[in-house]
Amino acid sequence: MNPLQTLRVAGRALMRNKLRSLLTTLGVVIGVGAVIAMVALGEGARAKVEASFASMGANLLIILPGSMTAGGARGGFGSGSTLTWDDLKAIQGELQSSVLYAAPQLRGSAQIVSEDTNWATSVTGTSPDYFLIRSWPCSEGAVFTKSDIEGSNKVVVLGATVAENLFGQGVDPVGETVRIKNIPFTVVGLLARKGQSPTGQDYDDGAFVPYTTFQTKIQGGPQKFIAGGIFISAAPGQVSRAQEQISTLLRDRHRTAENADNDFSIRNMAEMASEQQESAQTLAILLASIAAVSLLVGGIGIMNIMLVSVTERTREIGIRMAIGARPRDILLQFLVEALSLSMLGGLLGLLVGIGGAWVGTRLGWPTVIRPEVAAIAMGFSAFIGVVFGLYPARKASQLDPIDALRFE
Amino acid sequence: MPGVAVMKLEKVTRRYTMGDQTLRALDEVDFEAWPGDLLAVMGTSGSGKSTLLNVLGCLDRPTSGRYLLDGQEVSSMSRDQLARVRNRTIGFVFQSFNLLSRTSALENVELPLLYAGVPTAERQRRSAEALTQVGLRERMLHMPNQLSGGQQQRVAIARAIVGRPKVILADEPTGNLDSRTSVEVMALFQRLWREGMTVLLVTHEPDIAAYASRVITMRDGKVKSDVRQEPRVADPAELPAPEAA
Ligand SMILES: Nc1ncnc2c1ncn2[C@@H]1O[C@H](COP(=O)(O)OP(=O)(O)OP(=O)(O)O)[C@@H](O)[C@H]1O
Ligand SMILES: [Mg+2]
User: Fold this and answer.
1) Residue ranges of domains in chain B, CATH in brackets
2) Which of A308, B127, B181, B229 would staple B109 via disulfide (CB 3.0–4.6 Å)?
3) Which atom of ligand 1 is nearest to the CA of B18?
4) What's the gap in Å between the CA of A314 and the closest CA on chain B?
């Protein structure tokens, strides 16, 4: 018998017991469905983390004053005063091979007042490079320029959330005047929406002014130390080299003793991202293994029904053997039946999984269905069909023709 | 006797053991069937007729002794080779028909050809031909449960002859049929026999045995008598009570 005929015979046998066949596949349906949905959820969470880190900026390093605490220091922006403006200039001037851009980040918070309303938000003093480092373009107008820095001009670039709260949705604020600490600033740019940080903070809730203006108008006078951090964009593929070089340079400049700790810390966003991803991955693996167990149970269900089927159809097997079916023909027939059951289960499970992921998305969890996961799940159900179908099929093929024919 | 025996048993014994009791369903049987035999096997119930037929049909294996089918030693054949013999050399007709249920007459007849690897078109043509031979051209797509006993037995015969085997083995083929249908089935066997097949059938009825060219009688697992005779010609037209087939 050729494979197509075997498939037809198997299909017909399964169609004879439609409900039973369907119920038999249920274990695999649930297993595959769970695998697909769980992995989709896990992947979705991972993709979200990845995207939010990517939105911080490519190849981003952040230098903060003060040493790294054991836990990796989350807060601590501007704690300690060890980074100087000369450090920044040195990084910009001496490390051009590994550092593309370096920009200061001075942070404060203020009430921003428009004509009709006001909004409390964070105000950041920085240079134009900052927006390149964070790959954050303007959707209206443009960011401030070098000459704005040199002239300490009173210009501001608004984040999307701030502009929305001050001027309303969809209104172009460029050219308007807002007051920060009672000083009028001209809005020169509106930043494109960036979304949430990995920790859930709204990137778009902020306003940006030249760091010189920040120092004189908001901080109350220029200072020797950078009261904040330095954002660095390393050259592609040079992140760890940049990190090393900056470290050496700053230790040298700060005359740090050979065995003393750094008096600054450098955060590597790529590393933080992969740490977060790892925990998301662990969760995904856990969920997937639970799903794999249910697949296994599904396989046992198939084996059970195939054993019942072999017993029920002993006479049919006898007839087929008496007519000239070889053991391998019988083996193949039952194997293909088991395989059809498990693959049908896999297919239905795929639909259930996609449906589950869709519901998840509706409930606000991001999901990502990767085709290779679907393919692996289908492959796994085929594997289950063969593994658990083999024993019943072998049993059928080893029957003695005369015993099978006499079977009541 | 012409040429080699189609089937030859040499001291064949088939023993059944149940608990501490052993039973010889076949007891050192020596037997030969020749091309051109239309052979009836008779004997009381339990005398070993079915056992003999199952051994000859390669469905059962002898406990001891030699079985030569067409000059070939069967006892040393593998399961695959036995399957091939059952498929190509032998056509088996069972008392209880043994058709696959919920499978049309045509598809039942196609089965041996399916396992022989005959391509679809030829398979269907030959199966339709075989069904026409047994007079069931109009019933090809009927399921077994939509056919009468006689019709089912004819489907079974069509299935046995579709692969053009050398030997037809039939275990009480008329056991479940009325006398008129029995004569029709016997007419069919006589035709196949005249076309050159060796036909061996088990029967309880002397009336049916009368259509055979040779009658052997069994008792307690042994062949007690072996008689050649002039077969009566099976002619359904002789009988009254016409039946619409
Ligand atoms: N599978 C078996 N296990 C044990 N004993 C068996 C088995 N098959 C047959 N026998 C015994 O072997 C003997 C011969 O049986 P067989 O079926 O060949 O008889 P038979 O001549 O065909 O009888 P009948 O005319 O009733 O069909 C009987 O005594 C029977 O009980
Ligand atoms: Mg019998």
Assistant:
1) 35-61+78-229 (3.40.50.300)
2) B127
3) 4
4) 12
